[in-house]
């Protein structure tokens, strides 16, 4: 197997979120030890992503991380769609023929811990508290400056440094797209509830959505765009304690270019979109897999051609799907006005929705 390392320095991965950690692991599995840095001195204990999809479980399986994720997480078997007073439909995630016919619910902090553990076992340590401050290319080479004052000349770089990516900004790469104006609320709360905890429960309210996902024990994630989510809980649900609450905005953007001069962007540094469909982290891990495969085969210049069509199609569908929970478009209003449409449509759309949510809506023909 040939590698793309024309300089003696190993590949540099900037950012040790799920994308960067997975990239370091996939490269190591192909016999290429990378250097991985993260400006944060400690991993975050708060968890954005909860849904690990079957594609990610497939990609990580040979590393042993999948088994550990399955031991630690819990399965969500589908989604119940509700109006406040009645259930409209159930979308089941089983029936794809895939051996992981569910969404694994696992906190992002846990996923990152398990990826880091796998790296440590393979002799790779995340360099924490080490940030990239600048990166430039000249005469076919890369120069990366670190917060420690060190200057590196890696042959290959992966910018996996999140939505505000220093790699992307230093290189002057565009991040075109648009943002929604409204804030979204997140609560990780201890609940007493009669909701079916094996399913994600989505309540279509007149002005938005209330989403319930059980994380573990009686800890649930509530995500909503209505003004007072905890004041609009369904009958039979009460909050015992809120462990974490946060507010965030959604935007849809894709970096341009994703690849140039042996520097790739991946994960949130490359694409951001709403959390509906649970694709962000999963897509980042897929970027990481493709990056590692191409580095190992000295074909990194193909990264753009491999990733852009997939990313564009996923972001487009996520944007379209997000209109229903947002409740602002004509179709979103019609769905609320005539909820029987949802009951009628759900069984017909089930197969397509399931394939999309599980991340099985495209092939990954990299090898
Ligand atoms: C409410 C919510 C729910 C979500 N749910 C899901 C879900 O269920 N499933 C899913 O797949 N996705 C989900 N997502 C999206 C997911 O959280 C992100 O897509 C994911 O975190 C992206 O991972 P990343 O590694 O690319 O970037 P990040 O997680 O942002 O990691 C980037 C890392 O880079 C480091 N860094 C930044 N700048 C520098 C620098 N200059 N030098 C060195 N290091 C640097 C940061 O410290 C950080 O550790 C959700 C997002 C939100 C907001």
Give short descriptive properties of this protein.
six-stranded mixed beta sheet, globular, binds flavin-adenine dinucleotide, disordered N terminus, alpha+beta, FAD/NAD(P)-binding domain, 367 residues
Write the layout of secondary structure elements.
Elements: E1 12-14, H1 18-29, E2 35-38, E3 51-52, H2 54-60, H3 65-72, E4 74-76, E5 78-83, E6 86-92, E7 103-105, H4 108-121, E8 127-128, E9 132-138, E10 141-146, E11 151-152, E12 157-159, H5 166-170, E13 177-179, E14 184-192, E15 199-205, E16 208-216, E17 219-224, E18 238-248, E19 251-254, E20 259-260, E21 263-265, E22 271-272, H6 280-296, H7 303-326, H8 330-337, H9 340-357
Parallel strand pairs: 1-2, 1-12, 2-8, 5-15, 12-21
Antiparallel strand pairs: 3-7, 4-7, 5-6, 9-10, 10-11, 13-19, 14-17, 14-18, 15-16, 16-17, 19-22, 20-21
Bound molecules: flavin-adenine dinucleotide.
Report what the structure shows.
This protein has nine helices and 22 strands. It is an alpha+beta fold and 367 residues long. The chain has a domain of 215 residues: FAD/NAD(P)-binding domain, CATH 3.50.50. A seven-stranded mixed sheet has the order 6-5-15-16-17-14-18, with helices on one face. α1 links the parallel β1 and β2. α1 packs parallel to α4, α3 runs antiparallel to α4 and α6 packs antiparallel against α7. The longest helix has 24 residues. The chain starts with 11 loop residues before the first strand and ends in a 10-residue tail after the last helix. The structure holds flavin-adenine dinucleotide (FAD). The site of flavin-adenine dinucleotide has 33 residues, from α1, β2 and α6.
